[in-house]
Design brief:
Layout (H helix, E strand, L loop, with lengths): L3 E5 L4 H12 L3 E6 L6 H4 L8 E5 L5 H10 L2 E4 L6 H6 L1 H22 L2 E7 L27 H21 L3 E6 L2 E2 L10 H10 L4 E4 L5 E2 L2 E2 H12 L8 E4 L5 E2 H12 L5 E4 L1 H4 L15 H7 L7 H27 L1
Parallel strand pairs: 1-2, 1-4, 2-3, 4-5, 5-6, 6-11, 7-10, 8-13
Antiparallel strand pairs: 9-12
The structure holds uridine-5'-diphosphate.
The site of uridine-5'-diphosphate has 13 residues, from helix 7 and strand 8.
Length: 335
């Protein structure tokens, strides 16, 4: 009997890559998604694959979650409100989806004793300046008057709740803190920087670096994230632990813009946009973000397979193909 996995957020960027990998391993995959930030295009290629099932609904719908959890052996809980731009624009939905959605999943998984892997985020480290970030260090969030921090805070509540279910109800849970996952199919619609810069560069439009551009990030290839998730879900020692999933390669947004411009041969100017204009007045960005991944390496032998240039090459090729496809569709419609 194949393993049956439920992926909440299964039509999202990471969820759809995970679904593909699990199907390749011969698993039966159930995807739940309300298409808020996910899309049918992400799962188009999977719909005809044997063993793939999907339901378009919210993770906050307890009846649907109960039914789907019941059918599966493992739950990958990825459904969440994501993307800083979206969070700033729609804080009510962010907090409610992230807290209530996770509560619903854990409640029903606990009733049936199904293992749950919870996707958290590197945002939870907030403004901490203790580098590289280790899973057991203190976190430092900004004030509740700045809506950006509601995302980190909602994900921390998810982590507390998952660990509480483990302690009190013996529910097997694993928590992963994802560091800026990137790769083909990620959309820039919700503010993510790499798809945004790549699209701008390929269209020779201004590349918009926010703030002074000296803030840094460590980007993680979606293929590596998926590998880590599937391994962790089937590693008994991982239960009850929190894992950073990232890469040690750090880059500033100024350097990233220049690298993408060079790799695409673009004539785009690189412009700086004040945070107040990009997000909201008084927006606080995270200055630096770099993970310690030794716990993940020791537990499952994790090592990133692609460096940043390798990831960018894949994203550039994918986006270039998408752009020329949409140009073809527009000219065909005009004929
Ligand atoms: N950013 C940027 N230009 C853009 C979009 C994002 O300079 O068009 C910056 C953003 O301010 C942040 C970094 O890129 O410092 C990463 O942003 P993203 O939203 O991808 O992820 P975050 O780390 O903020 O969750």
């Amino acid at each position: 009997m194949p393993v049956r996995s439920l992926i909440t957020g299964g039509a999202g960027f990471i969820g759809s890559h995970l679904a593909e990998a699990l199907l390749k391993r011969g698993e039966e995959v159930y995807a739940l998604d309300n298409l808020s930030t996910g899309s049918m295009a992400n799962i188009d290629a999977l719909k005809s694959r044997p063993g793939f099932h999907y339901v378009l609904d919210s993770v906050r719908n307890a009846y649907v979650v109960a039914e789907m959890v019941d059918r599966c052996d493992v739950v990958y809980h990825l459904a969440a409100a994501v993307g800083v731009k979206l969070i700033v624009e729609d804080p009510v939905n962010t907090i409610e989806t992230n807290v209530h959605g996770t509560e619903t999943v854990l409640h029903h998984a606990s009733k049936k004793g199904k293992k749950v892997l919870i996707a958290s985020t590197s945002e939870v480290y907030g403004k901490s300046e203790q580098f590289p970030f280790r899973e057991d260090q203190d976190v430092l969030l900004g004030p509740s008057s700045k809506s950006r921090w509601s995302y980190a805070c909602s994900k921390l509540v998810d982590e507390f709740l998952a660990l509480a279910y483990l302690r009190q109800k013996k529910l097997p849970v694993v928590i992963v803190r994802l560091f800026n996952t990137v790769g083909p199919r990620q959309t820039g619609r919700y503010g993510m920087v790499i798809p945004t810069f790549v699209r701008q560069a390929l269209r020779n439009e201004p590349i918009t670096v926010y703030g002074d551009g000296r803030q840094s990030r460590s980007f993680t290839y979606v293929g590596d994230v998926v590998w880590a998730l599937t391994r962790l879900a089937h590693t008994p020692e991982a239960v009850g632990q929190i894992f950073n999933v990232g890469s040690g390669q750090e880059i500033t947004m100024n350097e990233l813009a220049a690298l993408i411009k060079k790799m695409t041969g673009s004539s785009s100017p690189i412009v700086h946009v004040p945070y107040a204009e990009a997000y909201e007045q008084g927006f606080e960005d995270t200055g630096r973000r770099v993970p310690d991944i030794s716990r993940l390496a020791a537990t499952i032998g994790y090592r990133p397979t692609l460096d940043l240039e390798g990831i960018l090459k894949k994203v550039i090729d994918h986006t270039a193909a998408e752009l020329s496809e949409s140009v073809r569709a527009v000219s065909a419609a005009a004929v």
